[in-house]
Design a protein that fits this description.
Blueprint lengths: L7 H4 E2 L2 E2 L10 E4 L10 E4 L8 E2 L14 E7 L8 H11 E12 L4 H5 L30 E9 L8 H12 L1 H6 L9 E9 L1
Parallel strand pairs: 3-4, 3-6, 4-5, 6-7
Antiparallel strand pairs: 1-2, 7-9, 8-9
Length: 201
């Protein structure tokens, strides 16, 4: 994965959440943005805040956005709050241009943060989104009539750790995701999962 062609490593930087506009003219939507919006993006949230451009509850579908409107759609710790994950992903697929990207970060199901917030109604493991990712075993169940291509996936933020032991652990769990989800994560849970998906038609 080349970080220069991916959005996620430029949004979740080594020094924290990006503070400057990195979009370079790309049209982007930050859905469920709350008070902290991706710089340069259109913000959508049910709350009326200075960062919100479209006041709308993401659970009310369809969203007031035309098909194929954005090059990038972004959700930072939002999917765990929605009433229907697959329907929300369907809206992201609809409003993102073919070949456009969807960047999503959620709490990992073993992390205490996943359960601290009483408004969290969904929990995510490594393969949760595989039901709508082309070429995965779980996509054969055809829960959706749309598919994405997975171009990036990370345990935690999308950067290698500076600590050699953490780098080695990350490399191991990336090679053994099922073993990690079922066993090793009981001892060493990551805080979050990050996906970068490409819209395919």
């Amino acid at each position: 994965m080349d970080s220069t062609t991916l959005w996620a490593p430029r949004i979740y930087t080594l020094s924290g959440f990006v503070r400057e506009d990195i979009l370079q003219g790309a049209a982007a939507l930050d859905f469920g943005c709350g008070g902290r919006k991706l710089p340069g993006a259109v913000g959508m949230d049910r709350l009326t805040l200075p960062s919100v451009d479209i006041v709308h509850d993401v659970n009310q579908r369809p969203w007031p956005v035309a098909d194929d409107s954005f090059d990038l759609t972004f959700g930072n710790h939002v999917l765990e709050h929605v009433d229907d994950v697959l329907a929300t992903l369907g809206e992201l697929h609809r409003i993102t241009k073919p070949g456009g990207r969807v960047v999503i970060q959620v709490p990992y199901f073993r992390c205490v943060d996943a359960f601290n917030d009483p408004t969290h109604v969904h929990f995510f493991a490594t393969q949760t989104l595989d039901y709508c990712i082309d070429g995965t075993k779980l996509a054969q169940y055809r829960y959706t009539d749309f598919l994405f291509r997975k171009v990036g996936f990370w345990y935690g933020w999308p950067h290698p750790s500076k600590h050699p032991l953490k780098r080695a652990l990350k490399s191991f769990i990336e090679s053994h995701p099922t073993f990690y989800d079922q066993y090793l994560s009981l001892l060493l849970p990551t805080e979050c999962l990050t996906w970068e998906l490409e819209v395919i038609r």
